[in-house]
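A protein record pairs a chain with a discrete description of its three-dimensional fold. The following entry can be read in just this way:
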Amino acid sequence: MRFLMMHRLDERAPEWNPGPEFVEKISACIQDWTERGILITAEGVHPSAKGARVRKTRGGANTATDGPFTEAKEVIGGFALINAADRAEAVRYAKEYADLFEEVEVEVRQIVEEDELPS
């Protein structure tokens, strides 16, 4: 099964400007998970000041809002797409991933596979 882990950070968190220690820890995790077949891909993203939000409401037009998103307490700082046997294992990996940060929230969501879609 595949799971998406999205990590949310306060935009003032030190991980937005990672030092050598954090880079070393995250790099070691990426290498380990890649070698063990856990990690499919992972990326960090720039702060919300460099982003935009597009919103479409039912029956309405698309609207775009440029960042930063000051109303958000925490914003997505990156994601990892992983392989796990089940949700419990994915949550264990998320805890391991969260331990790399000083303070973080990691949301774990199972990927909808093609064979789960109605035919």
About this structure: DSSP finds two helices and six strands in the chain. The chain has a mean pLDDT of 91. The helical segments are 20-35, 87-98.
